[in-house]
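JOB MANIFEST
job_type = single_chain_structure
chain_count = 1
residues = 376
[input]
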Amino acid sequence: MVAAVFMVVAGPVLAQTPPPQNVGVIELQPQPVARVLDVPGRAVASEEVAIRPRVGGIISEILYRPGTPIDAGTPMFRIDPLVQQAAVTQAQSDVVSAEAVVRQARTSFERAERLVGSGATQAEVDNLRATLDQAEAALAGAQSRFQMSELELSWTTVSSPISGIASLASVTVGDLVAANQQAALATVTRLDPIEVDLLEPAVRLQRVLEESRTGQLRQADELTATLTLESGRQYEARGELVAPGTSVSMSTGAIEMRFRFENPEGLIIPGMFLRGRIVFGESDVFLVPQTAARRDQTGAITVMVVEDGHVVQRALTATGSQDHHWIVPEGLEPGTLLIVDALSRIAPGMEVVPVPATVGEDGVVRPTPQEAPSGN
């Protein structure tokens, strides 16, 4: 009688025991992933020159159009050349006069040299030799002043030494300018290529170097970088390292690294703030779908995995992200079954049945199609 009562009571209880929950899983395997660091940056001109006059005078013409590309050697300003032309004429006449003095001194010296011992003494010949030397020196000085005056005349046309985009002029026709004045007449900026200073926190760079030293990171032959514009658009060109950082900023704790990018369309201009991504090399890591993980404010993430048919919670550390996945360098083993579906219906310790699933490029979980049994 007691046994019958026990069977009546226990029967419904045993019948209410739920079956193991089906959960979608993916099998994790380490795979090579580029080791990248996302950092802020600011664009700087690869070349920029301030246009200043080398001679003084009145601006008579402005020869360029502001905001348009110009080539190296393009005339930009013209200074009234009357003063310099007069100096050239004066210097040229001085040369002609000095040449006449040299001819006369040479003739006298050569005549005395032929008559030495008969009509001229050696002392007279020596004096005439010295006079000729002085005349030739005076001619050389006159020729030098003539060349300098011609140079100054050419400097009345102020040209750009580089190719680039010319700014607005800071002077107008009729303004008086001085040689080598402090204020620039205009600036010319080269935009293609453009250079970008990327600010890398020193502590993160030390971590990358440590990974390289221990063999966790396979360093790239050359450091490269990509950019994201302020609009969120991905910049197509890839930059090459120009100069590595050699000091740490006392205010930001960052190391400045300069990269050069092709900029044919002029999308990047000096002073623009950008986001940069530096590629340091490649390392073998696990890619954990972000939809399968929970992340707290400290940056730690937790996931659910299947071990011996039961749910186990794992705490992991992500070093970055890639295409809707967290990059996890350690804390997982090859072949780990990561739960990616039915996460809201499970808890650690529950018995579950793993069902293969897939995670698309968009991060959405999809069941893996099962093969249909073959018919006879």
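[summary]
The longest strand covers residues 31-51.
Residues 1-6, 371-376 have pLDDT under 50 and may be disordered.
exit_status = 0
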